[in-house]
Every structure is written in structure tokens, then in C-alpha cells.
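Entry:
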Amino acid sequence: MSNKIDYKKNDKPFYMPKTQPEIVEVPKMPFFMVSGSGDPNGEEFARATEALYSLSYAVKMSYKSDDVPEGYYEYTVFPLEGVWDLLDRSKPATDKSNFKYTIMIRQPDFLTEERFERFLEQTKKKKSNPFLEKVRFEEMSDGWSCQMMHLGSFDDEPDSFARMEAYCTENGYIRASKIHREIYLSDPRKTEQTKLKTVLRFPVNMRS
């Protein structure tokens, strides 16, 4: 296990984009995910995030167990990601109580559905978290997307999205959906807002 897989190096195009918009094709990837709604600063979001990390670290540390998954390799735990939408599109995007989300953490490709069920049962015995019941193990693909690295506060993201949409217009693409993905490369509890790094991404189509 000397060749540790690090997403910032091995999957750099998807996790470490430049601070200018670009078009990229994102392949299918396996995730642990939980869906919910409401203000992400609330308790529900925090517990859902905790459930995802508990399970993800159970997979990561399984090499120390008596039952190591077949094909296991050493890797860095992937960052938290969120796919965001609005419950009511007539309300402003600044109304955080109107958010609808699926948060997720990518998993290594050696993980199977059977193993997921086993890790889930093990984690439930160690952790009392009702959101473990809501965790799903599914594949997701963003396909052709526009993305960029956003530096700074989450509240300033609209400026970056405006730049991304302008880039699409200039280069023959259109935004395909109001839904977007965010990948959190910084811990907002430990990082100054001005230094937060977040990958922003939304799906695109070629303009006909």
C-alpha cells in the first residue's frame, strides 16, 4: 500500500480546477449520499455530514480489520460534496431555508454494495446517528460541465456562477440546469472565509 491514491493528484482535473471557468467531462463515480432540505447551517445538515464521514472513515480504516476488502488500496478520504437545488424556485436563492440538497462523499472503486451494507451495520453499532439510516450508496455522473475554483465566502458564489455562465455563452455552451455541485476543499470551521476553496460545477449542453 505504498502508492497512496490522493484525489488532489490522481483526479486533479475534477478537484483542483483553476480559478477561471473551464469545460470538463466528469465520469461516473461511486458515492455515499444523504438527501435533505433546509438551512445548511442547521443541526440536521451537520448530523448528515457526520454520518457520511463516519461511514467513509470506516471504509478507509478497514485495512486494519480482520476482513480487509478485496482490492483495497491506500487512499485519501475524498472531500464533502453537495448537489444543490431550491424547493421553491419563486423564492430568492439567498433564502437558505429554501435549499434542497444531496450531500455526498466519493468512495474508492473497490467498495461493493455488499461491503457497504456491512460497513453500515458496523458503523451503526459504534455511532448513534439517525442519518446513518438515510445514507445511500450510488453512482453519479456530472457528464459535460462547466467548473471553476471559487475562493472566498459561500455568499460570494453568485459572482463566480455569473462568470461561469458568461464563459459558457462565449464558448458555445448553455447551462443545462439550475442545479449545481459544490466540492468543499476547506473546513469552514477552521478556515478564514476569504481562504475557503470550493469547486463550483454545473451541467452544460452545446448550444444548437
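The chain has a mean pLDDT of 95.
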